[in-house]
């Protein structure tokens, strides 16, 4: 070890990588629409599947597993329709080693077939009721049958990582000799560890012909899905079977976002992936999960906290140079935030009890305000007091605190101003008309729109979205209403979350008013102002 004393960590990593069997190119086989859709509670409709397939293709995915055609008519039709899109990606479908499944895959017009059979003693005894010899004979006959119809045949020995290694290699060699062009090694119940998985992959890499692509398929039961997939690449695998957001059976599969970014940013592997499409694709899939699966705050790379900084020391350093506390720029993943000082201050410096003076001053200046020393310390004390109570200080809370101390936010900071709202409700279809003033290159332009809705609030929100549609496409993600005081004159407090579909930026806002429709409208106007402000600062 002494000879390594004077080398940097990155030189050390490079040295270690040179001793690995890293492939020259990483391929990605996406199984969001097959294993991912096996996530309990998740079903994508046909349009969503087509949209996901298009996005995966734009992302640069090499193989899209479109479904398991024999499982349902929906899967069968989805496979057929995805093939008809004529994408660059190869479209594959899953099949067991039997005639019906293979015929169904042929009828679905797929480009490639992914066949599988379980090989572990546990599965042979309890599920298949077959001997090892019977499994071998199935592999021989049905991989050959699959090969009669498909140039590309992927073979998976299900529960590979709990299979006797000699038998596993025998199965995979036989699959290759019967026509399989790719060998996938599934860690079906996520029980392998990186070194052991690496060993299994290396054994295959040393024994299988070099033109056979070895792929990793790792479930995340112990949270090791991505680590195991990376270990596979270190030992000769060149393809990762992954899902967007890590969707999949039980705790899911290795997440594509983490796998692809690690192999690219930490190992320098080339691939066909267009990395800045990762975040938009993840958000699209999240949206189609309909609230059943959401990106967690702490989710690596794409979670809300992944590029947020609160503590004084971190925030101060971030303002000088983003690499101090961010390993990569979020823009690399397509997250709409540049590394400019103003974008970092506006979007990534969060306030709370750990906030330092430097970051707070930068944040106040960012909204065009220069407080006196006394005003600054009042703002600072208010933020610390609220933070100390364990409350999250969101952007709108910050603006409210500043406004409290300094008076109204200057008019020049507003991009969208509500001029007029008229609502017609009762026994007629609820209809709302809004007149907005929208700032456009320094001047304000007026926009008027009317819309109907399920109620007066819905109609008003729809009218605002319509009014704003020439500027940006806006989606209302969540809407929460609560009465603050009792009685018919109760104050209505509305909290909303709104997304700019083009930038994928999400902001939250809230407002309180004695008229609940006005609460909703004011919250929406605040959110639009925030979206425009953040968009402008990320482009700065
Ligand atoms: O996890 C698994 O074993 C699978 C196979 C069908 C490849 O999904
Ligand atoms: Zn799986």
* Span of the ends, CA to CA: 47 Å
The CATH homologous superfamily name of the largest domain equals Aldolase class I
Overall number of domains: 3
The main pleated sheet reads as: 8 strands, parallel, barrel
**What is the tally of beta strands?**
15
Which CATH class of the largest domain applies here?
Answer: Alpha Beta
Summarize the amount of helix as a percent range: 40-55%
Low-confidence runs of at least 5 consecutive residues: none
The fraction of residues in strands falls at 15-25%
Look at the helices and sheets and give the structural class. alpha/beta
Determine the oligomeric state from the structure. Answer: single chain
Radius of gyration based on Cα positions: 28 Å
The small molecules bound here are:
3-methyl-2-oxobutanoic acid, zinc ion
- Give the rounded overall mean pLDDT: 92
The CATH architecture designation of the largest domain is: Alpha-Beta Barrel
Large-scale geometry: globular
Total helical segments: 18
Please give the order of strands in the largest beta sheet. Answer: 1-2-3-4-5-6-7-8
CATH topology of the largest domain: TIM Barrel
């Amino acid at each position: 070890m002494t000879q390594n004393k004077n080398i940097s960590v990155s030189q050390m990593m490079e040295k270690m990588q040179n001793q690995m069997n890293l492939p020259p190119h990483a391929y990605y086989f996406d199984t969001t629409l097959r294993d991912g859709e096996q996530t309990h509670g998740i079903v994508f409709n046909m349009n969503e599947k087509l949209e996901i397939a298009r996005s995966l293709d734009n992302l640069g995915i090499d193989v899209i597993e479109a479904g398991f055609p024999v499982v349902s008519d929906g899967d069968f039709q989805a496979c057929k329709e995805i093939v008809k899109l004529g994408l660059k990606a190869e479209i594959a479908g899953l099949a067991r080693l039997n005639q019906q499944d293979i015929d169904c895959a042929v009828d679905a017009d797929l480009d490639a077939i992914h066949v599988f059979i379980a090989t572990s003693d546990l599965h042979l005894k309890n599920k298949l009721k077959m001997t090892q010899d019977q499994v071998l004979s199935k592999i021989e006959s049905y991989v050959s049958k699959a090969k009669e119809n498909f140039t590309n045949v992927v073979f998976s020995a299900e529960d590979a990582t709990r299979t006797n290694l000699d038998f596993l290699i025998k199965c995979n060699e036989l699959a290759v000799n019967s026509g399989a062009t790719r060998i996938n090694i599934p860690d079906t119940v996520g029980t392998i560890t990186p070194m052991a998985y690496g060993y299994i992959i290396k054994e295959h890499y040393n024994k299988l012909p070099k033109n056979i692509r070895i792929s990793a398929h790792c479930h995340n039961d112990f949270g090791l899905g991505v680590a195991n997939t990376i270990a596979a690449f270190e030992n000769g695998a060149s393809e990762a079977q992954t899902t967007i957001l890590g969707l999949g059976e039980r705790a899911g599969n290795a997440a594509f976002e983490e796998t692809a970014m690690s192999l690219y940013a930490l190992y320098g592997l080339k691939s066909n992936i267009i990395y800045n499409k990762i975040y938009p694709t993840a958000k699209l899939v999240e949206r189609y999960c309909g609230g059943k699966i959401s990106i967690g705050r702490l989710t690596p790379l794409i979670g809300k906290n992944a590029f947020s900084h609160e503590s004084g020391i971190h925030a101060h350093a971030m303002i000088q140079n983003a690499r101090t506390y961010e390993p990569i720029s979020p823009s690399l993943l397509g997250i709409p935030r540049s590394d400019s000082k103003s974008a970092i201050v506006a979007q990534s410096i969060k306030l709370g009890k750990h906030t330092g003076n430097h970051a707070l001053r930068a944040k106040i200046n960012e909204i065009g305000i220069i407080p006196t020393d006394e005003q600054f310390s009042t703002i600072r004390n208010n933020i610390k007091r609220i933070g100390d109570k364990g409350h999250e200080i969101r952007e709108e809370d910050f603006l409210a605190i500043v406004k409290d101390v300094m008076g109204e936010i200057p008019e020049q900071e507003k991009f969208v101003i509500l001029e007029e709202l008229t609502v017609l409700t009762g026994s007629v279809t609820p209809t709302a008309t809004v007149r907005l003033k929208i700032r456009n290159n320094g001047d304000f332009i007026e926009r008027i729109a009317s819309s109907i809705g399920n109620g007066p609030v819905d109609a008003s929100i729809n009218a605002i979205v319509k009014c704003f549609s020439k500027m940006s496409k806006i989606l209302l993600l969540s809407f929460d209403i609560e009465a603050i005081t009792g009685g018919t004159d109760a104050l209505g407090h509305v909290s909303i979350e709104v997304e700019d579909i083009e930038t994928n930026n999400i902001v939250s806002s809230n407002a309180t008013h004695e008229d609940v429709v006005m609460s909703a409208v004011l919250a929406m106007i605040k959110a639009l102002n925030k979206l425009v402000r953040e968009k402008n600062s990320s482009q700065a």
